[in-house]
Fold this sequence. Notes:
Layout: E1 2-5, H1 11-18, H2 35-46, E2 51-56, E3 59-68, E4 78-85, H3 94-109, E5 113-120, H4 123-131, E6 135-146, E7 149-159, H5 178-188
Parallel strand pairs: 4-5
Antiparallel strand pairs: 1-2, 2-3, 3-4, 5-7, 6-7
Amino acid sequence: MKLRFAVPEDAQALLDIYARYIHTPITFEYDLPSREKFARRISSTLERYPYLVVEEAGKAVGYAYAHPERERAAYQWNTELSIYLAPEAAGRGVGRALYSALMELLRLQGVKTAYGVVTSPNPASEGLHRALGFRLLGVHRNAGFKDGVWYDVLWFEKSLAGYEADPAPVISVGQLSPQEVERVLDALS
């Protein structure tokens, strides 16, 4: 297992993973984005946050990324996480490694709180969040409608760092030292 940053050229391999979820309630997106649109999402995310891929034998088997939890400046110390795994990666610690690396990089950036937003029911994702120390904040009832069904959404929260009175602004992932990034990715690969 090898963790690395995604690049726009990974779009098709990651879309192949994501496509398995498009007709499920795990994503509330109705249609599979184009490869070009997905590549732009990767590039856009990497301007500020980590977007990680895990490979086995040179093949992408999962990915995870962070994005703003909300847009206003006062929320800059929060982020929402997303993760998708190929079926062969499920239940083998791949998700734990991806999420752990993602959260460590975010902590180094200065992020204080990570949120996981999970369509219910999703026992695998709920279990991953709980196993990694997230706590359930609440339930948004009937928050999403897909394929003729209303779904609840669970909000999980995890503190990544202390909450000092005068926090430094969150830095972009590109401002982290290459040595720090390599240490995190190598430790969890």
